[in-house]
TrEMBL record:
Record-stated family: Belongs to the binding-protein-dependent transport system permease family.
Subcellular compartments: Cell membrane
Database matches in InterPro entries: MetI-like (IPR000515), MetI-like_sf (IPR035906)
Gene3D superfamilies referenced in this protein's UniProt entry, alphabetically: MetI-like
Entry's transmembrane regions: 29-51, 91-112, 124-144, 219-237, 249-272, 278-300
Topological type in the membrane: Multi-pass membrane protein
Lineage of origin: Bacteria, Pseudomonadati, Pseudomonadota, Alphaproteobacteria, Hyphomicrobiales
Domain ABC transmembrane type-1 intervals: 87-299
Record-given protein name: Sugar ABC transporter permease
Protein's organism: Rhizobium calliandrae
Keyword terms: Cell membrane, Membrane, Transmembrane, Transmembrane helix, Transport
Domain of life: Bacteria
Length: 307
């Protein structure tokens, strides 16, 4: 009996059916292969290079051979005062910025959830800073802080207050970085908190109202415990991102004045590309990587234990 073309296409491929059978079985892998190769090249090679460079002394002169020094670069960190300043600045920035972003984001989320749910255009406006490229954010704040014609000093002048060198003052420089970061990333916390509030069950709140619990008591005994997983994820993401801050500092202050805003990422950049000390920069990067991974692992374990 002669089969039609439709019947022939409907027939399953026989085991061991050659190239067509193999192609159909591995089509997904073949489609993903170029992307996987690209990602492997962009991640595996730099990681392997960082591990090997961290235990070597690499001269900026290509004709000078590399020298294996073991833990020499790591021991050097213990007596590097500039690195210690960068660590302190990074910790201060991370704690201050993330704390302010969390408090403002949670407060705005509660405000929108309870009182102004219908004003969706305000939510869109609040999310705009998060959508702007970080470089554009940094350039915008650089113009705001500009000593001669910046908006902030113009406002100070109209209020009868003296102008300030915002990004050039040792006592104000870190605050200017924190303010710009809070403006940019508070919407991220706000969005997560608002989504978390929208998913809360209503029954416990109805029962609490029947029992006469105040709004403050409901917030501490119901809202915060229910939001704990969302809060943990929001804080973890923001802390990990804040620890690697680079763009705002590089454009606003370049780590100055007098190292007052130099963060770990900027310090690694200077060591690698200004002083051309690749081995030491790789060692510092490796320590930062291990600290970040270790903190994230500890934080997630604590979150699971709390649940």
């Amino acid at each position: 009996m002669v089969r039609s073309a439709t019947d022939m296409l409907a027939l399953p491929l026989r085991p061991g059916g050659g190239l067509e059978q193999w192609t159909e079985r591995h089509l997904k892998i073949l489609m993903l292969a170029p992307t996987l190769v690209l990602l492997a090249g962009l991640t595996l090679f730099p990681t392997i290079y960082m591990f090997t460079a961290a235990v070597q002394r690499i001269s900026p002169d290509p004709s000078v051979p590399r020298e294996f020094i073991g833990l020499g670069n790591f021991v050097r960190m213990l007596s590097d005062p500039e690195l210690h300043i960068a660590i302190k600045n990074t910790v201060v920035f991370t704690f201050s910025a993330v704390t302010l972003e969390f408090l403002l984001g949670l407060g705005l989320a509660l405000l929108f959830d309870k009182f102004i749910r219908q004003l969706n255009f305000l939510k869109t406006i609040l999310l705009v800073p998060m959508m702007i490229p970080p470089i554009a954010v940094a350039l915008t704040w650089k113009l705001i802080y500009q000593p001669q014609f910046g908006v902030l000093n113009e406002l100070m002048y109209r209020l009868g207050l003296p102008a300030q060198a915002w990004a050039g003052d040792v006592n104000l420089a870190m605050a200017t970085i924190i303010a710009a970061d809070v403006w940019e990333w508070t919407p991220f916390i706000f969005l997560l908190m608002l989504a978390g509030l929208a998913s809360l069950p209503t029954e416990p709140y109805e029962a609490a109202q029947v029992d006469g619990a105040s709004a403050w008591r409901q917030f501490w005994d119901l809202t915060i415990p229910f939001l704990k997983p969302v809060i943990a994820i929001a804080l973890l993401l923001r802390i990990m991102d804040a620890l690697r801050l680079f763009d705002l500092v590089f454009i606003l202050t370049v780590g100055g004045p007098a190292g007052a805003t130099e963060t770990l990422s900027l310090y690694i950049f200077k060591v690698a590309f200004t002083f051309v000390d690749i081995g030491y920069a790789a060692a510092v990067s490796l320590v930062v990587l291990f600290v970040t991974v270790g903190f994230s692992t500890w934080f997630i374990k604590r979150l699971r234990l709390a649940d």
